[in-house]
């Protein structure tokens, strides 16, 4: 059954705007869990611009929900992950100039290094995911380095959907969706888990949730944004309803 992982980075972004102690990301994780989230995602960036070391330690110690740690494949972050032991570590590209992650990890360009990282994480009982673009060579490289999960970057699809005025039937949107479908098929053929995420929201999520074999969607900004108006529990519950509805098999009449 498809799962929802809620990214709570931007709860910490709001806190850091005032350099204070609230809102608390741990509280957000608990609220998301109570609303039906299947996991929590946080990105511990090199510059600690939102989530910090204390946050990830408290999330590990105080919450009873699956933790997905997004991280660069650096020695520092691998060491933190091995000590923290999240259920999953997702390797992502990282640049200090970017507002958010802007594209998938180039696994092809650093296979030898990433294979070592994946092996070290696996030795510590951590499942490794890679955040990659919907490109078959990158997916095949992910399999070679031993990744157990591929999270396919849905940003191009989401931007096409927005640019087309939310017209799900537009050729540009359908073309991006076809790329995601093909990528997911290859991920599954190679024995990895097919996850997806980035820039998904309440309007564009269902087409992705309906893709064959997709296991988990990771969504953050849209949920935290809606929570400003309706509260986090309601925002998470509505997103989960949408993805479960889209993923449900058609009823035979």
Q: How would you portray this structure in words?
A:
There is one protein chain. This protein has 253 residues and is an alpha/beta fold. The protein has a single domain, classed as Aldolase class I (TIM Barrel). Helices cover 48% and strands 16% of the residues. The chain is built from eleven helices and eight strands. It has helices at 9-18, 25-34, 53-62, 75-84, 111-123, 136-145, 155-163, 171-189, 205-209, 221-230, 232-247, and strands at 3-7, 39-43, 66-71, 88-91, 127-132, 149-153, 193-197, 216-219. Strands 1-2-3-4-5-6-7-8 form an eight-stranded parallel beta barrel, surrounded by eight helices. α2 (25-34) crosses α11 (232-247). The longest helix is centred in the C-terminal third of the chain and has 19 residues, at 171-189. The radius of gyration is 17 Å and the shape is globular. The two termini are 22 Å apart. The relative contact order is 0.14. The mean pLDDT is 95.
The gist of it:
The protein is of the alpha/beta class and 253 residues long.
Quickly name the level 1 CATH class. Alpha Beta
User: Could you give the distance between the termini?
Assistant: 22 Å
User: Which ranges are low-confidence, i.e. pLDDT below 50, for 5 or more consecutive residues?
Assistant: none
Structural class: alpha/beta
Tally of structural domains: 1
Number of strands: 8
Question: What fold name goes in the CATH topology slot?
Answer: TIM Barrel
Give me the strand/helix succession: EHHEHEHEHEHEHHEHEHH
Shape: globular
Which range does the strand content fall in? 15-25%
Which sequence of strands runs across the widest sheet?
1-2-3-4-5-6-7-8
Summarize the biggest pleated sheet.
8 strands, parallel, barrel
Helix count, per DSSP?
11
Mean pLDDT: 95
The CATH architecture is: Alpha-Beta Barrel
Helix content: 40-55%
CATH-defined superfamily = Aldolase class I
Radius of gyration: 17 Å
């Amino acid at each position: 059954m498809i799962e929802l992982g809620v990214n709570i980075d931007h709860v910490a972004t709001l806190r850091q705007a005032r350099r204070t102690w609230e809102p608390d990301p741990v509280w957000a994780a608990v609220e998301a869990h109570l609303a039906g989230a299947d996991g929590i995602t946080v990105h511990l960036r090199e510059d600690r611009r939102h989530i910090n070391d204390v946050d990830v330690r408290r999330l590990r110690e105080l919450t009873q929900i699956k933790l997905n740690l997004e991280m660069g494949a650096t020695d520092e972050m691998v060491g933190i992950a091995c000590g923290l032991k999240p259920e999953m570590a997702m390797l992502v590209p990282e640049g200090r100039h970017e507002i958010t992650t802007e594209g998938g990890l180039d696994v092809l360009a650093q296979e030898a290094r990433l294979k070592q990282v994946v092996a070290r994480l696996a030795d510590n009982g951590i499942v490794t995911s890679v955040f990659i673009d919907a490109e078959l060579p990158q997916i095949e490289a992910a399999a070679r380095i031993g990744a157990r999960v591929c999270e396919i970057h849905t940003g191009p699809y989401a931007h096409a959907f927005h640019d087309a005025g939310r017209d799900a039937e537009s050729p540009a949107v359908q073309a991006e969706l076809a790329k995601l479908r093909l990528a997911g098929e290859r991920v599954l053929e190679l024995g990895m888990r097919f996850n997806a995420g980035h820039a998904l929201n309440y309007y564009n999520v269902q087409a992705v949730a309906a893709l064959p074999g997709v296991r988990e969607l990771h969504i953050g900004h849209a949920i935290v944004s809606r929570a400003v108006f309706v509260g986090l529990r309601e925002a998470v519950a509505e997103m989960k309803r949408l993805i479960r509805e889209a993923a449900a098999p058609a009823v035979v009449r």
